[in-house]
């Protein structure tokens, strides 16, 4: 079912996705968050996961007719426009050691756009980023707002292990690996902050809508 720039479609036997075809923007992502927050309270829904320009609705049990849930999603999407402009989330400053062993891909990222490493660091620290969504691993925040002069394709061959705290760039997004994980993003630096701690409440340091600034340190 398609309506108002979004497409609803079934995923397996017990899930439904809503995907937006509009150009990525903070206002659009806020609409995704608003629909997610509303949908978790619906009868017959067990969970809702927000992604980049999309969300997935998980049902309590398989159903033969998903049309009622499609209508709920599309109606919620229409209502979400009124709440697309909301107060900014909390601001977190993340200290980063850029380049060297902590950021082995910094030179390559800078070279893609004819920048020096210092210029690339300056541009990365100049922006205020917004957490678009959490995914891939617990506490991994996908940060929007990256300077186009720092956009870089993911690695052709992912690393088997990326150190926890690694600050990285993947396409038009940046983020911080919350734990030691495999990964294909370009590593430009590293922080000592703990982005995810299961014993902490909340466990993830960042949540959707929060803001991030990177600060270069020696």
List the helices and strands and how they pair.
Blueprint lengths: L1 E2 L2 E6 L3 E6 L5 H14 L5 E6 L3 E6 L7 H14 L10 E8 L7 H7 L4 H10 L2 E6 L6 E4 L14 E4 L3 E5 L2 E4 L4 E3 L2 E5 L20 E6 L2
Parallel strand pairs: 6-14
Antiparallel strand pairs: 1-2, 2-3, 3-5, 4-5, 6-13, 7-8, 7-14, 9-12, 10-11, 10-13
Helix pairs in contact: 1-2, 3-4
Give a short summary of the structure.
The chain is an alpha+beta fold and 218 residues long.
Task: Give the number of domains.
Answer: 2
Bulk shape:
elongated
Q: Considering DSSP H and I runs of 4 or more, what fraction of the residues is helical?
A: 10-25%
Number of helices: 4
Order of helices and strands: EEEHEEHEHHEEEEEEEE
The overall strand count is 14
| Unreliable runs | none
CATH evolutionary superfamily of the largest domain: Cyclophilin-like
CATH uppermost class of the largest domain: Mainly Beta
Q: What number is the mean pLDDT?
A: 92
User: In what order do the strands lie side by side in the largest sheet?
Assistant: 8-7-14-6-13-10-11
| CATH fold naming of the largest domain | Cyclophilin
Proportion of residues in extended strands: 25-35%
Task: State the end-to-end CA separation.
Answer: 53 Å
Which CATH architecture of the largest domain is right?
Answer: Beta Barrel
The main pleated sheet reads as:
7 strands, mixed
């Amino acid at each position: 079912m398609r309506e108002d720039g979004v497409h609803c479609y079934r995923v397996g036997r017990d899930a439904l996705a809503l995907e937006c075809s509009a150009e990525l923007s903070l206002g659009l992502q806020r609409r995704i968050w608003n629909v997610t927050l509303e949908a978790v309270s619906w009868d017959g829904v067990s969970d809702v996961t927000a992604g980049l320009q999309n969300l997935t609705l998980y049902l309590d049990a398989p159903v033969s007719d998903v049309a009622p849930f499609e209508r709920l999603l599309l109606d919620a999407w229409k209502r979400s426009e009124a709440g697309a402009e909301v107060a900014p989330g909390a601001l977190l400053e993340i200290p980063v050691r850029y380049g060297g062993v902590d950021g082995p891909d910094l030179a390559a990222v800078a070279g893609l756009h004819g920048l020096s490493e210092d210029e690339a660091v300056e541009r990365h620290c100049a922006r205020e980023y917004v957490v678009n969504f959490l995914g891939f691993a617990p506490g991994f925040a996908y940060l929007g707002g990256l300077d186009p002069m720092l956009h870089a394709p993911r690695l052709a061959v992912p690393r088997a292990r990326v150190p926890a705290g690694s600050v990285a760039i993947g396409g038009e997004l940046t983020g911080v690996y919350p734990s030691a994980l495999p990964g294909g993003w370009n590593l430009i630096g590293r922080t000592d902050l703990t982005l995810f701690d299961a014993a902490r409440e909340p466990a993830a340091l960042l949540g959707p809508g929060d803001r991030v600034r990177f600060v270069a340190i020696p």
